[in-house]
Input
Amino acid sequence: MGDQEVRALSGINLEIASGEYVSLMGPSGSGKTTLLNVLGLLDRPNSGRYELDGKDVTDLSEVEQARVRREKIGFVFQSFHLVPRLTAAENIELPLMLAGTALAERKARVDETLLSFDLLDRARHRPAELSGGQRQRVAIARATILRPTILLADEPTGNLDHRIGAEVMALLEGLHHAGATLILVTHDRELGARAHRRIAMRDGEIVADER
Amino acid sequence: MKLRDTLQLSFNTVTSYRTRSLLIILAMALGVAAVVVLTALGDGARRYVVGKFSSIGTNLIIVLPGRAETAGGFPGAVLAQTPRDLTLEDARFVGQLSQVKRYAPLNVGVVELAAAGRLREVTVLGSTADLLPIRHMNLAQGSFLAQGAEYSAQIVLGAKIAQEFFPHGNVIGQRVRLGDRRFLVSGVLAIQGESMGFNSDELVIIPIDHAQALFNTASLFRILVEARSRGDIESAKEAIRDTLKRRHDGEDDVTVITQDAVLATFDRILRALTLGVAGIAAISLAVAGILVMNVMLVAVSQRTSEIGLLKAIGAPSADIRLLFFAEALWLSLAGAALGFVLGQFGSLLIRLAYPQLPAWPPMWASLAGVTIAFVTGILASLLPAARAAQLDPVKALAGR
Output
């Protein structure tokens, strides 16, 4: 691309209400993942402002941003991103560990989560010993154990077959019904159409915003 | 993140990459073990030499006739150069000095010993009763030259001589002939082996007067003096020199050497040697440190997406830095501990193989080895840990 500046996003003006279910769609390179990363505080915009829960989080320090990510944002990735050395239960426990939660409480929360995600019999298994659907369930359990207000899902069914993908979507939508704001990035028109609000992107700009 | 969790998580990582961890630990351990074993060897050699010197006596001062020349050579070895003889009377004066605990005049010669129908040449020491305690010799049986009975014709046999002449025991009270004189065996020395060129197992000891008569001389070979304490050695040395100078018409014609001076020199040389060897071994530890750094850098690039994930779920850079840091800490700790054990074991093997060599690793060396392993391991992890902490989360998640 030479010296030419690449604008992954430009002129984005977006307000998402608490508890919404939004899909971000668009072709590759349209900026949807970049937008998701900005919303998840993984990426900083060169200019502009990002308010989360009525608070400007654009210029927070690295440590504070990490805390916001931990407490308010849950990521679900296409490739699960489980730590291969850790068991399902330990992977789910990671955010609690990072938050410095006491051991006894951690144990209780993990057991509770394993139960509600139907993973109790898989607790001691490592990711390599789990099926794709189970891995994504572990990943979603990990993303939600600290009860974040926003769930950011980047192609969460991209690596799963249709049936398992539908199960994972049902799980995510269940979490949305329980009150979480769900933002879904997908290629899949059918999947994107399920969201209550559908945002289409192209070349880093929002081209459609339907409810 | 709590410290306990950081340590546990990184411990988990170390045990998961088993082969990798074992190799680093081994490299570290060999470095530490090398430091421990080599210093054990060096210090063992030092103690061996110092011990040999100490065994010839404590607070020992040796007086020789003649002045030590800067040209070298052993004073008194060439008798013709001796300007004035040391006499028994000189020795008696030395013995009366306040700093002197006891003294023993010494004459040495080689004479034929005949007894029980056998005949051989033996080294003969002429001395007094105090030779026994000064030279730290022990008796196997009988008694030594009786104090105050220096004129009686008694003889003390070395262990080997006694064995050769009287293989069936029953040595005490036997008559032996030394040159043209008859002696009565009063005692037998315990087996001591060689020390400082004298094999005390193959010599005989007779009273000094008999020795002088036998060798037909009025002069002494040496005077062995034991100072009252270590602190008295220097002043005793001065006093002896003054006394003899006065007795020799103001001529400073004796050489007074102390065992301490010789000992200190050997001690210094061997200590320096040990330090040098330890330094060389420590270089291998630095190499192990570079190995740790390399492996940790590989680990960071291997686990890039994992680091991205940790950031995404809310780990600040500091936590990630600490995780890698703790990982290096565990590796160093295990390496140092294993190396310490290996080193101790290696030293034990040396001691078993060479029982005379007291190859005990000195405490400072073990501590230094373990500390260097620790410090290099930790230093080597700083760069990789910082690199991990600085990764951009978006790129890291994509595995870039």
In short: The mean pLDDT of chain A is 91. The first helix of chain A runs from residue 32 to 39.
